[in-house]
Amino acid sequence: MRVRSASGLIGYLYAGWLYIALLWVDADHRRSGIGTTLITEAEQRAIAFGCHSAFVDTFSFQGPDFYPRFGYEVFGVFDYPPDHQRLFFRKRLSAGEAWMAMRLEGSCRCGAVGFTVDRHTPYPYQRCYCSICRKSAGGGGYAINIMGLADTLKIRGKRALGVWNAPIDGRLGSADRYYCKKCGTPLWVSDEHWPELMHPFASAIDTELPSPPKSVHLLLRDKAGWVEPQIGPDDDCFDGYPQLSIEEWHKKNGLWVD
Fold first, then answer.
1. Do 240 and 246 form a contact (C-beta atoms < 8 A)?
2. Global pTM?
3. Which residue would you say has higher pLDDT here, 229 or 174?
4. Whose CA, among 13, 97, 135, 211, lies 20 to 30 Å from 204?
């Protein structure tokens, strides 16, 4: 009996690096999430063996837009073969080297307020459709928050910093929402339930953020009627809150930075 393989990945580990030598998914099974599963599994295994980075190369005619979806960045290009290019991508898997520093810089639109904060969770993958987020910071019908460490927060322009609290079911909520009093830019959210954390709005971040390999859509039960969520093939959707925290999601997908 002949057995037909639907997909596969071959990789090598050496000197702290994962090299993805081959990634293949049968045409009939593409856009089904298999490629995401293979890359995520390979990265998680590489991290378990102490790897801090990964690299892969591909040709311009083989889908070069695929790897940036998972946080890979181009670091080299050859004009080869004729009329095409060979592209080399790399990705940071853990804090094994100094170039892994994870510091965010953000600011308001007018520049009166600026801030920096350190974080382990760099991917802006959560889209919240609740009425508070979409009315105060979500022109597209949702807002995206990321997560930082509250004790590393440094603020410039505190006199221009405003704060408000959105009541929930007629009671004062646990979250304070910070904004610029001069231009109104939403900046971050702090919640008394998690005093060690703060959650900047991705829209206020000036640092280049990596593109998430997939997204999580939450509180869809509260979305506005005109909003049509752009749901990718590997996305997760929840009427309420997701099962995984931001930290758990990053660790599960091999994207946590120590």
1. no
2. 0.62
3. 229
4. 97
Residue 145 to residue 59: CA distance in whole angstroms: 35
How many degrees, rounded to 5, is the angle at CA 6 between CA 4 and CA 12? 110
Distance CA(42)–CA(24), nearest Å, equals 13
Tokens of 170: 């007629």
> What phi and psi values does residue 34 have, to the nearest 5 degrees?
-65, -45
Residue range 77-94, pLDDT digits in tens: 999 999 999 999 999 886
Domains of the chain (ranges, CATH numbers): 7-97 (3.40.630.30), 101-252 (2.170.150.70)
Cα separations (Å) of 240 from 43, 65, 154, 216, 223?
30, 32, 32, 11, 11
Structure tokens given for 17: 């690096």
Could you give the CA distance from residue 222 to residue 129 in angstroms, rounded to a whole number?
6
- CA 208, distance to chain mean position in Å, is 11
C-alpha atoms less than 13 angstroms from C-alpha of 128 in its C-beta half-sphere: 19
User: What order of strands is seen across the sheet that includes strand 86-92?
Assistant: 7-14, 17-25, 53-59, 86-92, 73-78
Token digits of residue 93: 């898997």
Give dist(CA 108, CA 102) in Å, integer: 20
